[in-house]
Amino acid sequence: MGNTSTENVIYDRPDSFGWVSILVHWVTTIVIITLWFIGRSITEQDSLEAIDARRSLHVTIALSAWLALLFRIVWRLRQGHPRATGQTMFIHRVARTVHYVMLVVIAAMMTSGPAVAFVDNQVISGFALKIHATSASILFALVLIHLGGTLKHIIFHEDDTIVRIFWPKKK
Length: 171
Ligand code: HEM
Ligand code: HEM
Prior knowledge:
Helix content: over 70%
CATH architecture: Up-down Bundle
Low-confidence stretches: none
Mean pLDDT: 93
Number of strands: 0
Order of helices and strands: HHHH
Bound molecules: protoporphyrin IX containing FE
C-alpha cells in the first residue's frame, strides 16, 4: 500500500487503480451480473425440481465467489479511493459515494443470501429473502447510475477515467 515507486502497478495510487483493483472489479462484475440473472430466474421455473436446481446453481456460484467479494470490499476500505482526475471535487464525491454504496449493498447480499439458504426458521429466512431481493433491485439501479457515469465520460470527457479501470497508469 501507499507504495509510490514508479514500478508499482499492483496497488492503487492517489490517482489510479492498480492491477488488484482492476482484476477484482471485472471478475466480481461478471460474477454479480451472472448471479443477478440466475437469481431472478429462480422463481420463473415451472417445476419445483427446476426451481431447486436453479437455486442450488445460484448458491453454488455465490458461495464460490464469496471470498472474492469480501476481498474486494476489504481491499477498497484498506486502499482508500483514488481521486477522480480532471473532475470537480463534487463529481469525485458523487462517484465515490455510488461506489461505496454499491459495496455496502453487495455486503448486504452476501449476508442475506446465506440466511435465505441456510436458516431453518421461516420468519427469519423470509425476512432475509426480502432484504436480498430489495438489495438486488437497489444494486441494479446503482449499476445503471454507474453505467450512466461511464457513458458520461465516454461521450463528454476526454480523460482517463475509463482507461484506468482497465489498465494501471504508468508514471
Ligand atoms: C452479490 C451477490 C448476489 C447477487 C447479485 C444475488 C442476486 C439474487 C437475486 C436477484 C435473487 C432473486 C431475488 C428475488 O427477486 O426473489 C436471489 C435469490 C437468492 N439468492 Fe442471491 N445473490 C447474491 C448472493 C447470494 C449469496 C451469497 C447467497 C447464499 C449462499 C445467495 C442465495 C440466494 C437464495 C437462497 C435466493 C432465493 C431463491 C428463492 O427464491 O428461493 N445469494 N439472489
Ligand atoms: C456489477 C457491476 C458493477 C459494479 C458492482 C461496479 C462497481 C464499481 C466500484 C465499487 C468501483 C470503484 C472501484 C472498486 O472498488 O472496484 C468501480 C469503478 C469503475 N467502474 Fe464499475 N462496477 C460494475 C460494472 C462496471 C461496468 C460494466 C463498467 C463499464 C464499462 C464499469 C466501469 C467502471 C469505471 C470506469 C470505474 C472507475 C471509476 C473511477 O475512475 O473512479 N463498471 N465500479
